[in-house]
Amino acid sequence: MARLVLCEPIELYNILNQVTKLSRLTEPNYLCLLDVRSKKEYDESHVITALRVKKKADTYLIPQSVDLECVEYCVVYDNNTSHLEAVLKDDDDNGDDVGGGKSDDSREELVAGAAIECGRAMTHLTRHPVRILKGGYERFSAIYHFFRTQKIIWMPQELDEFQPYPVEIVPGKIYLGNFVQACNPKIQKDLKIKAHINISMETGPLGPGPTSRSAKTTCVQIGALWPSCWSGRRLFLETLSQTSRIHSTDLCGPAMGPENPFLRASYG
Length: 268
Fold this sequence. Notes:
This protein is an alpha/beta fold. It is built from nine helices and 17 strands. Strands 12, 13, 14, 15, 16 and 17 form a six-stranded mixed beta sheet that branches. A five-stranded parallel beta sheet has the order 1-10-7-2-4. Strands 3-11 form a two-stranded antiparallel ribbon. β5 (54-56) and β6 form a beta hairpin.
């Protein structure tokens, strides 16, 4: 039987943005993202590719399209569950007494969040850990508002065309992406990128980014100086020391290939 583990928002963000030749979201056995909130809340907005889990009596009904036994990542979220322990809940049959204290019939019981209840049911169906999103939808959508959607059905072609965001290394500070992502004005705006450090072998102008003076983008080209020259490494470190928020790319990951690393920084 699998176990429950907490999943930080940054972990789910990076799971959603993994790439080989295409986004890994195209792989049927890569990610199962389950939303256990009410239908009204789900319809208003949810995390991209999330499937709503219905509950009948005390049983959670997993979508038939999901084969949990083969899924690499299973992530469950509700509104705001932040820990794996159950919470004490007062159950007072007669209400408070005149003095404002608890009545003799008041009871306390341990109540688990909806995500935990659903996650426990999932542990019997998969061999991988079941991840409970820490802070739930409220926290994730507050940080990554651009991953909210009302879309329910995703066609394979739409997942093929999904444009991933750079991998997040340090929350809100360092991102690792490629040159194409660095030139994407929407990514620059969503992640509030203010500076780019190009450590690829190729140099070139970036695409149009934010236009306001307060969001002016800076680019430092290091290129071939990095692997062989101390001055390149020193320039790289000096640039980092001047920024408080860094956005970077995986230097040898499949997202862009080792020939096109690109470091991007954003500072507040």
